[in-house]
Amino acid sequence: MDRQTGILHVIYGDFSLGVNGETDGKKFAYIFNYGRGGMESMVVDEKEWLYRTPKPTFWRALTDNDRGNQLHLKSGMWLAADTFIRNTGARVKVDGQKVENPGAPGNKRFFGNETAAKVEVEFDFETITVPAAKVTVGYRVEADGSIVVKAHYFGQKGLPEFPVFGMRFLMPTAADGFTYEGLSGETYPDRMAGGIKGVYEVEGLPVTPYLVPQDCGMHMDTEWVKIFRTKVLDNRYIVPYYETSDYKAPDQAATVQPAPGHGSLDAAEQRQSERSQAVQTGTQQGKRLCKQTSIQIEKTGKPFAFSCLPYTAEELENALHIEELPPVRRTVLCVYGAVRGVGGIDSWGAQPEPSYHISAEEDQEVEFRIRIG
Fold it and tell me: Region 150-175: what's the mean pLDDT?
């Protein structure tokens, strides 16, 4: 199907909704899955940005202070809620009009040529806490390919405080790094006074080497963050070893021993021989690389907090020492609307100051825009 800039093409699948288009020469395609409860694919310029469906997040890895004041014993159910959540429904709007029965068999009334200027998909969730709480996550796709994400937690009486509330995005490969506008260094709600406003570039996905892994890499009061990726999982982008920066070309005057019955090989023939061998073993020696691209998360109203790490909170919790963390494979981007303070009056029982607690009995919300780059 030919794409026209500024027009969204909408595909009504049996169990999913597809939205694709083109803006400023960049093609994008998104898939929202009703059963999985969210956006299961986000492809920009043929690069996939999602490894799993984004979900609400309620837990950050414990700090020494958290362990000291027994946050895990009081609020441990939020760790389970962070891992498992029940998807209870979905709604679709196209250009502001609700679409009844967008999936099978109601989708049979569509012909595959539907277009729109705006598409909205909202998902309902129920936590596995006791009592259960409700959460909604909405995605609004606009004609330029940007996506406004809004997650709303409905407060529930009787639930303990939680460490964070936001959205977690799991990307297929480790990011090259990220740039953000906000406060310098690592900051928390009760650790912001030393942060200096500015634009900062971070190389890779650094994890603070605590003796016992714990939460790290939090950035408060953020205007925007841009994540850069080169590596992909797509086999079409395997780069032979001889084309990577790791490859060391032989000296121009070098020769190698020829096979029996052949004369000596000059340097060019040697390189060609090595290239052929590299291509043949490309899946072992090659790297899955393509041109560096990015996506940007930016505020729509008030600033947000974020962390961009190679591990989930659960992976950090599971390691007793830094060397027990798994190899770096993914990018875990969490965008928060609420973050609990870390305290620090002491590490054997003192709580953060009352203004730095997050009540699960009150509504919480986070909203931001994903802009394709």
Answer: 98
